[in-house]
Amino acid sequence: MPYRILYTEEALSELRSILDFISTDNPSAAARFGESLLDHIDVLAELPELGTRVARRSQVRKLLHSPIRIYYRVNKRRRLVEILHLWHAARWSPYE
C-alpha cells in the first residue's frame, strides 16, 4: 500500500515561488518543470526511503530533482511522506 504525500504550507509556497520565477521567462517551461518535479515527488509514495538522510537532522531525507532539493520526513506508522521544503540547490539550506 503506497504512502500518502503531504505538503507543508512552506513547501507549497516554495513551489509557487519556483514556478513563478521560471514562468516569468517561459510559462510552458514552468508547467513542464512543475509537472516533472511533482512526478518525481510522487515516486516517494512507493519508495519513501529513496532519498538520503540529512546529516544534521536524522529524521529528514533529501532527494534531488535538479536544481531543486526536496526535503521530506517519513512517518512509517502513519504511512506518510511529509514534504517539508523545496530549495534551489544554489541557495543556503538550514538542513545542510
Would you kindly provide a brief summary of this structure?
By secondary structure, the chain is of the alpha+beta class.
Distance between the termini: 32 Å
Strand order of the largest sheet: 1-5-4-3-2
- The CATH class designation is Alpha Beta
* Unreliable runs: none
What series of H and E elements makes up the topology?
Answer: EHHEEEE
Report the strand count.
Answer: 5
Compute the CA-based radius of gyration. Answer: 13 Å
**Percent of residues in β-strands:** 25-35%
CATH overall fold name: YaeB-like fold
Identify the overall geometry: globular
Number of domains as seen in the coordinates? 1
What is the annotated CATH architecture?
2-Layer Sandwich
As a percent range, the share of helical residues equals 25-40%
The biggest sheet, with number of strands, parallel, antiparallel or mixed sense and barrel status, is: 5 strands, mixed
Mean pLDDT: 92
- At the fourth level of CATH, the homologous superfamily is RelE-like
Structural class: alpha+beta
- The tally of helices reads 2
Overview of the structural elements:
With 96 residues, the protein is an alpha+beta fold. It has one domain (4-88): 2-Layer Sandwich (YaeB-like fold), CATH 3.30.2310. It is 34% helix and 34% strand. It contains 2 helices and 5 strands; from the N terminus they run E-H-H-E-E-E-E. The chain has helices at 9-25, 27-42, and strands at 4-7, 52-54, 57-65, 68-75, 80-88. A 5-stranded mixed sheet has the order 1-5-4-3-2. A hairpin with a 2-residue loop joins strand 2 and strand 3 (57-65). Helix 1 (9-25) packs antiparallel against helix 2. The longest helix has 17 residues, at 9-25. The N and C termini lie far apart (32 Å). The mean pLDDT is 92.
